[in-house]
Amino acid sequence: MTVRAHCSRWMSAAVFSLAALCGAAQADSALDAALAGEHRSEANRARDVYRHPVETLGFFGIKPDMTVVELWPGRGWYTEVLAPYLRDNGKLYAAHFPAQSKVEYYQKGLAAFKAMLAANPALYDRVVLTELGPPDSVAVAPAASADAVLTFRNMHNWMGQGNDVKVMQAAFAALKPGGVLGVVEHRAAANATAEQVKDSGYMTEEMVIKAAEAAGFVLEAKSEINANPRDTRDHPKGVWTLPPSLALGDTDREKYLAIGESDRMTLRFRKPAQ
């Protein structure tokens, strides 16, 4: 190979590397901008220290040009971050509670989420609202259209309803081959039984992995990004004893504030490419 050819290859690799670095920097700045936006309340910003959004979304491999599905976004804590981050070059599907549900909690949660979207169209006008209410409503996005499906602290609800595998199947159907399923969930002790964690809000990693694998996913990696070793997981009102719920009110309030939010597993699964 000639010197000129070597130089050409080196320059091409350097340009490619520089382009990759610039792209990563732009993605990081876009995420920083979303987190710093005035649309986020001080209460939501205060939870960043427990939820580690930059590290968590980085671990899941989320980029601003992706199509992402957020399952049961609740009042929209992560939607506040994902919607502006994905708005210009990507797409966000928010698979919320079914509109026809008779459950009051679901009705209020969906109404509050819709109000949030409507109040700031400059950020949320491109969010696509879909429904997740297994076993009937499971079309969270068009089949094989999403690069990633994310869920934050919801698996215990679906397990309690007996719908955890059905939800995982809905995520699998929405993902492109090779797509990512990202799960953050309150973590029970590894040896805890289903009876012991019932109604506690916690699950073992094994329970989550089993449900995802039953739908066809492959566990790719675990992270301790959202771990909290101060959480003993044996609270009177389960995970809701801790902030932000503080279900015991003023009883031992300082104790639970000192613990902080729950210990959480962070798992990345992959839909097989073939």
**Oligomeric assembly:** single chain
- CATH fold title of the largest domain: Rossmann fold
- The overall number of domains is 2
CATH class type of the largest domain: Alpha Beta
Measured between the Cα atoms of the first and last residue, the distance is 38 Å
User: Overall 3D geometry?
Assistant: globular
Give, in spatial order, the strands making up the sheet with the most strands: 3-2-1-4-5-7-6
Strand fraction: 15-25%
Low-confidence stretches: 18-23
- Along the chain, the helix and strand elements come as HHHHEHEHHEEHHEHHEHE
Biggest sheet details: 7 strands, mixed
CATH architecture of the largest domain: 3-Layer(aba) Sandwich
Mean pLDDT: 92
Count of individual beta strands: 7
Look at the helices and sheets and give the structural class.
alpha/beta
Q: How many separate helices?
A: 12
CATH superfamily of the largest domain: Vaccinia Virus protein VP39
Binned, the helix content reads 40-55%
Radius of gyration: 20 Å
